[in-house]
Amino acid sequence: MSEPSIGLALGGGSARGLAHIPVLEVFDELGIRPKVIAGCSIGSLLGAGYAGGLSARDIRERAELLLSDRIGALKFAFGQKRVNPFDLLALRGLASLHVHGEKLAGLVLPETLPENIEDLTIPFKVIATDFDAMEERVIERGPLVKAVGASIAIPGVILGTQYDGHSYVDGCVTNPVPFNHVREGVDIVVAVDVSGRPREANGKNRSNMEVAVGSLLILFNQVASLRRQISPPDIYVRPAIDSFSGADFFRIKEVIEQAQPAKDQLKRELEKRLMIAST
What Rg, from alpha-carbon coordinates, does the chain have? Predict the structure, then answer.
């Protein structure tokens, strides 16, 4: 009997999405590869690397190098990558300074990856949100960096790519855990939810920013929950990373450590299903 095929969906969650790395390690440790991957926001960034042929270990080492500390990140960006810091910024009026999403994606993704999505080793779908049409867009062809730049465009922080004259924002706005896009032609659908929840107030009044971000997280959780009720994936993994904020990129080792139980859970479940399939 042939090995069951797997569709993998990597959700969005900013720094919490670093928990995807130990999840990807499960596939390498079991010696299996997803048949198709869909990624949203940081899930599109990490998913692009994996679909492009990087191992989970490669991704972890690159992420730890880039996010070792703020000084290390600057050395990587402006030394090894030779990036002008002003090239990353996009000024839209005096009160609107953003990071340029496409250039940020180009900075983070390895230059060894194929230029176009359709040339990746594993079929890959990038999930973004068409702001003007108010709908989800699934990008499966064309420049990889441009598509990922659209998917990671956090409203008010990262400026998204334009397609056909339309502006794009973070894929989480319409589909924070895009498992519905990896169902076709697979035996097992694995979804990884790293959205997180609003952090506890700990007796203090929340700032306006905390309320705004927390409100978005509530929205993302509700959207993902409704999609699960309609058609649940076979395996739903939710790492225990609620204690981290979306900006905790330099706590990468802590995020990965917190995701270890979720990694173990996924590995046990996949081993069980693979064993059943082989009998």
Answer: 18
HSE-CB of 269 using CA atoms within 13 angstroms: 16
Say which residue the tokens 């720094």 belong to. 15
Residue 1 lies in a domain: no
Determine how β-strand 97-100 pairs with β-strand 89-91: antiparallel
The catalytic residue positions are: 41, 170
- pLDDT tens for residues 161-220? 888 889 999 999 999 999 999 999 999 999 999 998 887 766 677 777 778 778 888 888
The b-or-e profile of 111-133 (16+ CB within 10 A means b, else e) is eebeeebeebeebbbbbbbbbee
> How many alpha carbons fall within 13 Å on the CB side of residue 200?
4
Instruction: Report how many domains make up the chain.
Output: 1
Note the pTM of the prediction, 2 decimals. Answer: 0.89
The residues pairing with 136 across neighbouring beta strands, listed in sequence order, are 129
